[in-house]
């Protein structure tokens, strides 16, 4: 096995070997070339589907790998979105200020995650109560932001705008002589796609490392992990922070994509959707989570054309079906069935040649 | 011989229940000690206090001469303690090999890890089932897997909480031989056990706990001659 493969492949991920990575590479290449084939509207849509992937991957890491069900990743999503709005509207798009706003939009969720995570994990909050605490936080954020409609709710020159949310923040801008590079449309798509690839590969390396081994150990049996000498709470805190920064990345990219952010992005419905994407694909595998998220956000959008409540009902149905018939997630279940089937056939064919002489 | 573990006036109350009520225990380096006593005598509680799963109500714990009474559990493990729980504490949904790797990867790296892995698989005779999920092993095999994980840390002191529970007589005997082998290699071992045949097989010295206190202590022969021990625990033979 080549050295780079031993880094990205391992016991914590399905799909491995040169063939798997070749197929994945082709998918990425086709995606990157799409802007030359399809219209700008389709590219904008595709960007939208990819924007959610980071929050889903982060939840897969926290929940699927480390066994901590956070129901409130949208708190970090919203915090990042609003942070970008406030900072970028105040500082404008000159120089590298929009990138500074982007950076700060990731730092703030990280700090919130450290604070919340510290009190949860070192305070002995576990299991379903982590979900309750994080859900409460995102709902408090939503409620608070929804009542900021009045003119007194202004930070610098940025109005928070209550229920309607903030809008008209400048896009990411990179100074380049006379013609600064503005990340919107196709260039934003490429940026998001590159980030998806980067984060995906980074997480593959992380979960298949010694660190990832400890994560799944904590998921399976935290007491045993501790008695093997691992600082369980520190690992939990660390993974919670990574997942929350990824939720923040989704939030800031969403804000950049639509140039708006609203309180409802932190509401109950918004908080439930990532759980459905991650559970439907297979929370214990980041590849399954990645594709399920893109597929389900696309499906939601298709169904939403017929009315948004209609789409939500179908998302609920999908969650129910998964929980009842494929608790490991649809993609993971199908993948394992195919793999086991292939192994069975190999076993069935292999012994025949051996057993013939003795027969 | 140097003292490896010492508890001084150790107490643990759960509300009004005095689970451990003033235990002074001294374990010497290289010892193989058995803890026996009726259910509820405080044996498992004592182990949990030694490992720091919860803090004592009073008293002190010294390990290798250092006071570790308030040290966090994982740091105690890093100082050279290791435990096999009463209920098999393994990673059920992970393969046997990965269970061992997780245990081995803290003290070992690279090729040394692979070698240690093969040694452990041989020790517990699970080489042919290395890719099997731990959940699919028999109860006895799960016990062995956890013993191997505890041993993987190369601890100075190994605590075994009912290592043979649910094992067949042959499995119990094999476990006894394994424990003796580990002890012969220099590992200090403390065992909680109900199976007196097992205790007879391995023990050099036995401590009897009763109502959270040390009831008797000494060689197995001395213990079984104590009529009070027979009355409270062993029963009429």
Describe this structure in words.
The complex is a heterodimer of chains A (359) and B (237). Helices cover 71% and strands 3% of the residues of chain A. Chain A contains 15 helices and six strands. In chain A, strands 1-2 form a two-stranded antiparallel ribbon. Chain A has a two-stranded antiparallel ribbon with strand order 3-6. Chain A is globular and about 70 Å long. Chain B has nine helices and ten strands. Chain B has helices spanning 43-51, 73-78, 96-104, 110-123, 139-152, 169-184, 196-202, 220-225, 227-234, and strands at residues 3-14, 17-28, 32-36, 58-63, 66-67, 81-84, 157-161, 188-192, 205-210, 213-218. In chain B, a hairpin with a 2-residue loop joins strand 4 (58-63) and strand 5 (66-67). The radius of gyration of chain B is 18 Å and the shape is globular.
Annotate the secondary structure layout.
The complex is a heterodimer of chains A (359) and B (237).
Chain A: H1 3-8, H2 17-33, H3 40-51, H4 53-65, H5 73-91, H6 97-122, H7 128-146, E1 154-155, E2 158-159, E3 166-167, E4 173-174, E5 181-182, H8 185-207, H9 210-220, H10 222-227, H11 232-258, E6 260-261, H12 268-281, H13 286-304, H14 308-325, H15 330-355
Antiparallel strand pairs in A: 1-2, 3-6, 4-5
Chain B: E1 3-14, E2 17-28, E3 32-36, H1 43-51, E4 58-63, E5 66-67, H2 73-78, E6 81-84, H3 96-104, H4 110-123, H5 139-152, E7 157-161, H6 169-184, E8 188-192, H7 196-202, E9 205-210, E10 213-218, H8 220-225, H9 227-234
Parallel strand pairs in B: 3-8, 3-9, 6-7, 7-8
Antiparallel strand pairs in B: 1-2, 1-4, 4-5, 9-10
Helix pairs in contact in B: 3-4, 3-5, 4-5, 6-7
